[in-house]
Every structure is written in C-alpha cells, then in structure tokens.
Amino acid sequence: MRPLLLRSSLGCLVTVFGSFSASRNKLVTQAAAAPHLYYLRKTMHYQTEERGRPNSTDYRIYFKTSEGKYISPFHDIPLIAETEEDHGVPAKKPKNNENEVLFNMVVEVPRWSNAKMEIATKESLNPIKQDVKKGKLRYVANIFPHKGYIWNYGALPQTWEDPNHTDAETKCCGDNDPIDVCDIGTQVCFPGQVIQVKVLGILAMIDEGEMDWKVIAINAKDPDAKNLNNIEDVCKSRPGHLEATVNWFRKYKVPDGKPENQFGFNGQFKDKDFAVAIIKSTHEHWRALVQKQTNSGGIECKNISCCDSPLNCSADEARDVVQLAPAFGSPHPVSPEVDKWHFV
After folding, report:
1. Which of 49, 119, 167, 203 has its CA 20 to 30 A from that of 38?
2. Do 196 and 112 touch, CB atoms closer than 8 A?
3. pTM of the predicted model, to two decimals?
4. pLDDT tens digit string along 24-43?
C-alpha cells in the first residue's frame, strides 16, 4: 500500500504507512476562552483572533499557535491529531481502541446556527469568514423541523477536493475545497474550534455536478465516542440521525431556488475504511497543491510550516497579513428572516 505523507505540527512531512494504524492520540482538554478584551479563544494547541465586525463581510477569524504565531488552518494544522504531553510526560495509551487514529477538525459552523462560515481558501492565511453570494451574507435556511445546521460542521485540514481529479465511482470532479466533516457529538462548538474526531463513515454528495464528500465523525471527547466505531453503530444507536442528514443535504439549497442535491451510491453512507481512503486521497491532492505540482484553482497556499513547500512564508509575513485586517468591532444586527421556517 502506498505510504501516506503527513506533516507534523510546525514541522516537516512524516510518513504514516497502511491504513492509519498508528497509536491513538490522547484526548486533549479544551482550554477555556480567553478574556473577550483580547478577542482571542484558545482551542487545543491553537488560538483564534477575530477581526472586523461579526455578521459583516469584513469579519474574519485568524488562527495562531500557542506561541502566538499566525498560521493557516487549511495548511498548517496537521490532518492527524498529535499525541499530547502534559508537563513533558508522554500521553498514556488508552485501554481500548489503541490503534484508533484521530483527525483534527476545524469547526466552521456550530450546530443549530445559520451563518455559513467557511475557511477562506482564496485569502492569505485562509481565515474563517462568512460566505457571500450576490453581495449578501449567506445564511442556511431552516428546513423544518431543523434549526440551521444539525451538527457541528467544518473541514479536515490538509485535504483538498481537487477539481482536476475525477472520482472513479461518481465521475464527478472535486469542489476545490477541503473535505467537509459533520461532527455528530453532543457538544455545540464555536467557529474556529479545533477538535479531535473519530471518523465513522462518509456520504457522497454531488453539488451542482461537483463531488462534495461529507465525512461523518464524532468528537473524541464525546461520551458516545467509545461506543460508535463505524457507520453501522450510528444506525443502531441513533435511529433517524443519518436519514435526517441525507434529507438535510438534499434540501438545504431549495429555499434559495436551487435544485435538490444528488448523491452517489444511491445516497447510502459508505463505511469507515472507505472514508479513510477518501481522506487519504484528498490529503495527497493537498500535498501536490502546496508543492505547486498541480493547478491551484485560485487556492491561496501561503503557509508557515510546510517545509517542502515553495509557498512557505515567515512568521513576520504572516503577522503582516493579519495586521492589515480591520480591528475587531461590535456585531452587526442579523435579520429576523434568518429564523424563518421553510417547508420543502
């Protein structure tokens, strides 16, 4: 089997062989939010810094390391979650599922919220921003009986659905974004939070002719994580959850006048091994992207830690990018139309 090359945090690419059979990572305690005065929030090894006014087109969430260096959440946060050490003491192996590999997930949209926040793939350092369509901020409609997104929604860093690559099964090309993730855990996260997730399966959504994979995962800190090991476990323990997920993705654009989304494999979820294989493939495409071995499709690949990338930049250059953004300000009001029910 072809080895998978991954980058350790703020280091060079390292090799992981086989089907991710490395030791499982220790769960990391979520740090408390920093005082709002500093507009910072701590999340695992990372902090976020808000710029601009929330609910406006200039609002951005930038990412920093615990040492205060600005980074790209797309390129500088590793795909595989690292083993945490407490005060220099190596993490203990868990008693169960010690070969389980956890992935980092960058949360873009909290569960039950409507603002379509996303990694800005075409901006320097790829901050999180709210999507804009036809000059207006984009909010996902409430498809009855749901309110906004029905899971924490985000992306796996260091992955890329290559628009130059045609999927062998669906015959569709990638959507030019990092691969999407739905965290079905209990905790409602915040935009910019970095969590460790356990992959359970994947859904092959086709969005206006483009391949748009949806990884189904659960926060490793969730009480149910130890009992959910594959997509079949979700079917058994959470009746209706996966059916609601397919229905949500099928209809969420209909209130905006778009057709229903379609699915590969007749809308059936594929298993964990299939999901991991897709993730590996999108990681390889990302590697080619940051090494300028493929057409970038307009993606901004500036990073501070991919040591074999010609698009590497210094910490000072990264800081200059953030300093050009407007200062954090009070939020704009949100239209009550965002709370409207849609029956489709």
Report:
1. 119
2. no
3. 0.87
4. 332 222 333 333 333 456 55
Q: How far is CA 122 from CA 95, 129, 297, 299, 324, in A?
A: 43, 11, 9, 5, 16
Mean pLDDT of 164-173: 95
Q: Looking at the chain, which runs of residues are DSSP E strands?
A: 4-7, 13-16, 40-43, 46-51, 60-65, 70-71, 103-109, 117-119, 128-130, 132-133, 136-137, 142-143, 152-155, 173-174, 180-183, 194-207, 210-219, 262-263, 341-342
| Residue 242: domain span | 47-83+99-332
Helix, strand, or coil (residue 150)? coil
Q: In this structure, is residue 26 part of a structural domain?
A: no
User: Does the residue 30 lie in any domain?
Assistant: no
Which residues lie closer than 8 Å to 331 by C-beta, 6 or more apart?
Answer: 53, 54, 55, 56
8 A C-beta contact, residue 1 and residue 18: yes
103 lies in a domain? yes
What is the average per-residue pLDDT within 3-13?
41
Cα–Cα dist 321/326, whole Å: 11
Residue 195 belongs to domain with CATH number = 3.90.80.10
Amino acid at site 262? Q
Average pLDDT over every residue of 229-251 = 97
Higher-confidence residue: 25 or 245?
Answer: 245
Per-residue pLDDT tens digits for 147-168: 999 999 999 999 999 999 999 9
CA quadruple 224, 225, 227, 228: dihedral sign: positive
Backbone angles phi and psi of 90, in degrees to 5: -60, 145
* pLDDT > 90 fraction of the chain, expressed in percent and rounded: 81
Whether 337 is covered by a domain: the verdict is: no
Query: What pLDDT is recorded for position 204?
Result: 98
